[in-house]
Amino acid sequence: MLARINYLTWSAITTTLIFGVIACQPPKQSTTSTEETTSAKALPGEGVKVHPAHGGLPEESFRAEIVSTALKQLGYQVEPVSALDYSAKLLAIANGDLDYTVTHWEKNHKGFFEKSGGEQKLERVGAIIPRMLQGYQIDKKTADDYQINNLAQLKDPKIAKLFDSNGDGKANLVGCDPGWGCEGIIEYHLEAYGLQDNVTHDQGKYPALIADVVTRYRQGEPVLYYTWTPYWLGAVLKPDEDVVWLEVPNTDLPEAQGELTVADTSIEGKNLGFPVDRMRIVASQQFLSANPSAKHLFELMEISPEDMSAESLRIKEGEDRPEDIRRHAEEWIERHQELFDSWVEQAKKAG
User: Fold this and answer.
1) Tens of pLDDT along 100-119?
2) CA–CA dist 142, 222 (Å, integer)
3) The predicted structure's pLDDT at residue 55
4) Of 271, 288, 314, which one is at a domain's C-terminal end?
């Protein structure tokens, strides 16, 4: 009997000790750690589809790839880029069919911007390329031989005939593709400076036309063309070495360009006739309002004109397939990894 009592007493003591030990144990941790939860919440674009656009040039694909990569690191699901002309893509963004474009000349495309709803529906963000030039160039040999430095000198039929490439006695000016925006400014200039009778504005596929310009230059023929920077042409026909910029007699631009003065169209003392511009990202007001992280990313991102010129030249030399351009974008990010990562981290905080 005594043994049974001792046994029961010992069992009670043991049970008490076991429950005491269990009670003192820390609570079991959840399988999802606080760190994992925080990490998941740190991707503000999670579950959001984004629809980008550009104008169709390979150089624009390069910029689009860099921006898309950054958005994906914010958690966004970036859809394939839609290639549309500049006015159509802005209208699609304003209507909510697309979200943003990486290709918008702030001043050159001002008319497209306003016609698509302007600041009531769209917003220009950041400056992905901070400085861009446009204007007219001729070969330096002809410029020196005939003392040509101004577009208005083409009013002289003898000067204009120097740049005749098809035998009709008029200068052939290689200009912009229809729908780019710059073609309207060129046509306006020809009228404003009284050049319609002496100058023909040659339009078509600009890359093919400008390749012909380079061929004629290398054959020793005079050349006259519109161009912009950054673009590969500046590395092949170098300003002040192979070619020269032509000035214009005065700043005269279409009404849609707004009130611009000689200060807006001049660089290093030369009035090029086109506004000194910058490339910006344009997105819908609705998208930016709903996605502050994407907006802050757009505000931060910048690619130097020198890097864009180098990319343009690689494309011109044959590395123009989508997989080439995607690789170029990856290489650019690797070369600027610290800067790129800082953009992403700052954009995460904004979200």
Assistant:
1) 999 999 999 999 999 999 99
2) 6
3) 81
4) 271
